[in-house]
Design a protein that fits this description.
The chain is α+β, with helices and mostly antiparallel strands. It has a domain at about 580-685: Jelly Rolls. It has helices at about 5-10, 10-30, 35-55, 60-70, 75-80, 90-110, 125-130, 145-165, 185-215, 225-245, 275-300, 300-315, 325-345, 350-375, 380-395, 400-410, 410-425, 435-440, 445, 460-490, 510-520, 530-535, 540-560, 575-580; strands at about 180, 185, 595-605, 615-620, 630-635, 640-645, 650, 655-660, 665-680. Strand 1 (about 180) and strand 2 form a beta hairpin. Keywords: Membrane, Transmembrane, Transmembrane helix.
């Protein structure tokens, strides 16, 4: 086959989709995390290398290294002595993996891997590389994939973020400007709270989509097993670090874990103790389940010894974990013990089912008795603290349920109370993605007597999703999850929507998002598809129907939810009703001794002061940067153009002097290239309006 024919056989639609989507996520991340290049790129390039080069070398080891790095590299910049700089999103790792996948697939096609004949023995390196990487190709059109609908919904949520935090400026030729969202919080920083959730989800889903899209055949290439192997390697590395932290010092490899060390919790290489408290027992349960299966199949004593040793180590490490660890680990151990013992000692299927039902029924009472005994221990362990809190909860619940829940956890009780109030105010559409931590930073909450010492998400996944997406948004989100579970025949995985999703918003960090979506999308069966789903997919109407529903649900949610942003205003009027003044759109506030606003960008708009009908004056943009054209435009109340003039280039900036035309209400300044300039605070009145 000629090179031109190979070029024609490239999956151009896939390449355009994945590279364009990755490019958009990259730009979104750099916008909400404008970290200086000398701080950002060292950790980014190292993450990128751990994703790109293993994927380029071999499909299997690319998956292993990506999953291993996803739960070990989340605090890389802190561990190297640099600031956090948004590393919790692992943008470099996932972009490197996605880029490596499609560079590998492109090279395989261009080098002729699809052809029958392989290269000559003299080109042994290329031959071995091609044998290791059979070319993947999917016959299903990309927009018919279940991943496409989920990504489209996430894209709609990003659009809603722009409407909520940037106003309508991006759609009215004003570009993306950085407004003042709260007195001490810019719109860029406010949008970053939403992207703390959106970027990890998009990157993880896009990565899994790339892996499945490039697979040769699901039956010959176990994506699930290879990713699980990488998770086990990362799990072992985290266990080692946590052992050192527990036996030697909590300060070991703990930079960037916020309040975890001060609370006396070991974190390993996870994002913080919140991530460790649920990822440790979940992956630990997968590991012990794997060892149990090997032991029952082979009867090797080493497997049994390793199983018992692993359970003891994980339990001991849990002494320095949060309450979520003991709930999840206790439930997993109890259910696993019941399942294993009944399988080993009861032969009759009927007796086995009845015995399990009886044991499940008495399990809560047995757990309470164990907690009562633990509550009598005098050690300062989190398990003992949890047991004492549960005892107080049981005593207080019959008389006062509210006080009882406060005994369990006062901070989480306050967070749930705030979430419940927000759900009641906006039950159907929610308050917007990222709005919960934003509310905790709002002046109204900061001025209240709150028991919440830090900014966080609600303590349960469902409080978060109902608060931010509402009932309709939650139904759409769970609809996509349900389609994934049906497609793969993983109905048993739906229990994971309760554990660990019941404990916090695990998808807010990349390590948690990766583990959550691996458990839901892949599970034990990898990418095998259920017979019922395959039967419908072969019809001519099923795939288009799923596409129509995916796009229709997302667009309707976006359409209805965007109505509440129309009253926020455009340009300088954005959030005027809530801030009580007009947006000045500065990047840096005025400081002593000059008290000047600093502006960055290409387009700005200000409301004009209404002190006189005709206004004469001067505007001087103090700057050292240069642009070939800087133009001032006057608009009337309907935003129709009245007059435009050009600034005069001077030694220290750009100058304009003249008279504002009659009927002018707004002033816009446009620069051909990005400009940084300063204006004195005296240029604006007390309401944020421009005055001459």
């Amino acid at each position: 086959m000629s090179f031109l024919d190979r070029l024609r056989s490239l999956p151009f639609i896939d390449l355009v989709f994945f590279f364009s989507t990755s490019f958009l996520v990259w730009n979104l991340h750099r916008y909400v995390e404008p970290v200086p290049k000398d701080l950002f790129y060292p950790s980014f390039l190292l993450q990128f290398a751990f994703g790109f080069f293993p994927q380029l070398y071999q499909r299997k080891w690319g998956r292993v290294w990506t999953s291993l790095s996803a739960i070990t590299m989340v605090r890389l910049p802190y561990l190297s002595g640099l600031p956090m700089v948004g590393s919790y999103q692992l943008v470099g790792l996932f972009l490197g993996s996605i880029f490596g996948i499609w560079v590998r697939e492109t090279l395989l096609v261009l080098l002729g891997r699809n052809e029958t004949a392989l290269p000559k023995q003299s080109e042994q390196i290329i031959t071995d590389w091609m044998i290791r990487n059979p070319t993947g190709k999917s016959n299903l059109q990309i927009w018919y994939s279940t991943y496409f609908g989920f990504l489209f919904f996430l894209f709609c949520l990003v659009i809603l973020c722009f409407l909520q935090f940037q106003g309508m400026g991006v759609f009215t030729s004003l570009g993306i400007q950085e407004f003042l969202y709260y007195p001490n919080l810019s719109s860029r920083e406010a949008m970053g709270l939403s992207c703390k959730i959106l970027i990890p989800i998009i990157l993880v889903v896009l990565y899994f989509f790339s892996e499945e899209r490039s697979m040769p055949t699901p039956s010959k290439d176990s994506l699930s097993e290879q990713i699980r192997f990488g998770l086990f390697l990362g799990f072992g590395l985290n266990i080692l670090v946590m052992c050192i932290q527990s036996l030697w010092s909590l300060e070991f490899f703990s930079l960037g874990t916020h309040l975890s060390v001060s609370a006396g919790r070991s974190t390993g290489l996870f994002q913080d103790s919140g991530s460790a408290s649920w990822i440790l027992p979940v992956i630990g349960f997968l590991w012990t389940t794997k060892l149990t299966h090997i032991w029952r199949k082979s009867k090797e004593r080493f497997s049994l010894f390793l199983l018992i040793f692993s359970m003891i180590v994980i339990t001991l490490l849990g002494l320095k974990q949060g309450k979520a660890f003991w709930v999840i680990w206790g439930v997993f151990l109890s259910l696993g013990f019941i399942q294993l013992t009944t399988d080993l000692w009861i032969v009759s299927a009927r007796n086995k089912i009845l015995t399990r039902i009886g044991l499940y029924a008495v399990l809560p009472a047995f757990g309470c008795l164990i907690l009562y005994g633990i509550s009598l221990v005098s050690k300062e362990w989190y398990l003992v603290d949890l047991a004492k809190r549960v005892m107080l909860f049981i005593k207080a619940f019959p008389n006062n349920p509210g006080i009882a829940f406060q005994h369990l956890d006062l901070v989480r009780y306050e967070l749930i109370k705030i979430a419940n109030l927000g759900i009641k105010e906006n039950p159907w559409m929610g308050s917007g993605i990222g709005s919960f931590p934003l509310y905790l930073l709002s002046p109204s909450h900061l001025n209240s007597n709150s028991n919440i010492p830090f900014v966080d998400f609600p303590p349960t996944f469902y409080h978060w999703i109902l608060y931010e997406l509402g009932i309709l948004g939650t139904c759409i989100f769970l609809y996509y999850i349900g389609i994934f579970l049906w497609e793969r025949g993983l109905w048993k995985q739906s229990i994971l929507l309760l554990i660990p999703f019941l404990f916090g918003v695990q998808i807010q960090n990349s390590d948690g998002a990766f583990v959550c979506f691996y458990l839901l999308f892949l599970g034990e069966k990898g990418t095998g598809f259920s017979p019922s789903f395959d039967k419908y997919r072969k019809t001519i109407w099923f795939s288009p129907l799923l596409l129509i529903l995916a796009i229709g649900f997302s667009l309707n949610y976006t359409l209805f939810d965007s109505q509440k942003f129309l009253e926020d205003g455009i340009g300088s009027e954005f959030r005027k009703q809530k801030l009580k003044d007009y947006q000045i759109a500065y990047s840096i506030p005025p400081k002593s001794p000059n008290y000047e606003y600093e502006f960055h960008g290409r387009v700005w708009e200000w409301k004009m002061s209404e002190t006189a009908t005709l206004r004469n004056g001067r505007i001087f943009l103090e700057t050292s940067s240069k642009s070939t054209l800087v133009e001032i435009t006057f608009l009337n109340a309907d935003r129709n153009r009245i007059k435009s003039e050009v600034f005069t280039d001077t030694k220290n900036g750009y100058n304009w002097s003249g008279e504002a035309p009659k009927g002018a209400s707004y002033v816009q300044i446009r620069s051909r290239y990005k400009l940084e300039f300063r204006l004195p605070r005296s240029q604006f009145d007390g309401y944020g309006r421009l005055q001459f």
